[in-house]
Structure formats: structure tokens, C-alpha cells
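Hi support team,

I submitted a single chain yesterday and got back a structure, but I'm not sure I'm reading the C-alpha cell output correctly. Could someone confirm the output below corresponds to the sequence I sent? I've pasted both exactly as they appear in my results page.

Thanks,
R.
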Amino acid sequence: MLTNDKNEFRFLQRILDTGASKGFSITEIRYLQVTNIASILGVAFNAIWMLISIYLTDSPIIYGSNALLGLMFLIVLIFNNKGWRILATIWLTITSYISVLLFLYLLGYSSGVSVVCFLIIILPYMTFPRKARKLAHGFSILACLTLIVTVLFQSNINAHYDEVDPYLSQVINISITGFICLALIWSMSVLLDRSEELLMAEQKKSDDLLHNILPVNIAQDLKEIGKTIPQRHENVTILFTDFKGFTELVASISEITLVNELNDIFGQFDDIVEEAGVEKIETIGDAYVAASGLGAGTAEHASNCIAAAKQMLSYLEERNRKHEIKWRMRVGIHSGPIVAGVVGKKKFRYDLFGDTINTASRMESSGEPGKINISGSTYQLVKNEIDSEYRGKIYAKGKGEMEMYFVK
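Hi R., thanks for writing in. Yes, this is the structure output for that exact sequence:
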């Protein structure tokens, strides 16, 4: 039973999606689905009238007209399936309009068929694609004028076939029209909810992707005002890593293997820094750059970077025992002021500027594989928390002699 229900649901969904294309926007699909629903309801309306007229009358023109109109409504699905969106919607509206005029002629104003004009007034705005909105205006105005004319001249619109009781015709026409209005509005409401959910899901994907590239506050500024203002941060710690012997390693393995290895390692580093309260900034070749202290209230920025560095080295040590390729990494850490911001107009990249970044890089290049080399300024921030080994004053390119410490 459950399988049958699923199959029926899929069949109905395929009918609703008749003519849908991958290139359609969410809004275009919604208009298409409402058009298909209206087509099916039009077929149902005329099928009901055909059965009633066969039972109550002996007039072939009445049930024959309903059969013909039902087929005309069915053609809407065929047009949509061919990709003729505007033609399908025009055909739907004209068929609805013809059905009103034909029933006014056959059964007269007293049949209540003029109430269908209310449906035709709103139908174009629910079915016509946005690019054909002028046509929607025209058909709605035509239906509105038709309703006004029929009301003004109702005494002159008499039935040419009076085999159906006018009261019964009114009950049927008004009831079915009311049901169709309810069905269309309910369908539109459901489709709008689905569209909103899909848009929210796509928005979340976009936001998540943006937040993977940029910090939350920077991403928010770009979305709201289209630019960011560079911010100076006085107390930030930079973590800089690099692999020893990387150039020789590149020459010994394939490019695909290299990328897969770095992706695996840096992916784990991403998890480590996030857990430690450190923010990844970028990767440059085999170098990994992260920072702590960019957000408000990050007083332990130096400790956070050292904790992340320890986990990175521990992970690599464990990984090297299980993998053929052995990675030997140096880590450099320095604390100080930096300016953070996004430069350029395209392919945004959040970057850090200032001497602190350069000094962190020198700490890394002056270090040793498997060890964390920190500067004197970072040492002053963590000396009461973390054991360190003083290395003395060591020459760093472009910086001169600097005090350095190995974290134990």
C-alpha cells in the first residue's frame, strides 16, 4: 500500500512538473505548476458537467461542448511539455474564456456561469511567466469587462438550451468554481511555501560558502553595503606553518597525489583550528596561516594558537606512522597588531596586513621540524601558562636578531 501511494505521488508530481526545465528559476517552476494544476482542474470541471448533462439531458451539444473544452484544457499540458510556456498559458486563458461565453450562450445568464469570470480575472497573474506580464494584464482586464457587461445586460442573455434547471446550473457552476478557486489558492500557497524553503536552503548554502571564505562580520558587510572597512586589531596572534623539504617532495610524487595529501592534512587542520578558537586565514602552497584575536573578547589568542599548533604536530606524527609519505612541519607563532580586510572587487579574499604576519613567517622559517617556535612577544603572553625553552637571539631574514623560544 505504501509503495502504491508513493507511485501515485510520483505520478502526480510528474504531471505537475510537465514542461519543467533545469534552467527554470524557482518562480518560473511555480508558475508552470499552477498552470498545469489549472489545466487539470479545467478538465475536471468539464468532465463533471459532461457527466451531469449526459444524465439530465438528451442534448449532444451540451455534453459534446464539455468534452471538447475538456480536451482543450488537456492540450495545455501538451504545450508545456513541448516547452511552449507562453502559448500554453494563453491557451489555458482563452479556453477558460471560451467556456464562459459558450455556456452563457447555451444555458444563459441564470446558469451562474458568469462567476467563472472572477476566476479568469486572477488566473493570468498565477500562471503567466513574468516576461509575459502584459498579456496577463490584458486577459484579466478582458475578463473583468466581460463580467461587467454580462451583469449589465443579464436580461438579454437567455438560454438557447433550457433542458438544465437554472437553479441546478447555478449550484453546480458556483460550487465547482469555488472549489477550483480554493484548490488554486491552496496550491499556490503550498508552492510559495516550498519556494521559500528552497530559497532559504539556497541562501544558507551561499552563506555557508561565504562564511567558509570570509569571517561572519566581513561577509555581512559585503552583503549589506557591498564593501568592508579595514579594521585594526591590536592584540592578535598569527600561526604560520610550512613543510620542510616540500620542493623535493613535489618532484617525487604526482600532482594529484600531492593535492590529495595536502587536502587531507589541511582539512584536518581546519577542524583543529576551529576547535581551538583560531580562525583559518589562507593556505599558500604548503603554508597554512591562521590567527586568533580577530574577534571581540579573545584574550587567550596566544594560548589558542599554541594549543592548535600542538594538535597539528600531534596529528602529523600519528599520520606519518600510517602513511608512506612523511611530512615534517615547522610552526612559527608571533603576537602583535595587524590590519584585516578585503581588497579588490572580485574573488574576495580576507587577508591580514602588517609586520606581525611577516614576523610570524620568520618564526616559522627560523624554527625546526616538529617544534613550535614563538617570538618574544608571544612568550610574554604565555610564560605563566606554557613551558618554553629560550633559544637566545637568532637572526631572522629582514628582521635582524630576535628572541625566540621553543614550546616544550
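A quick pointer for reading it: Residues 221-407 form a domain with the Alpha-Beta Plaits fold (CATH 3.30.70.1230). Let us know if anything else looks off.

Best,
Support desk
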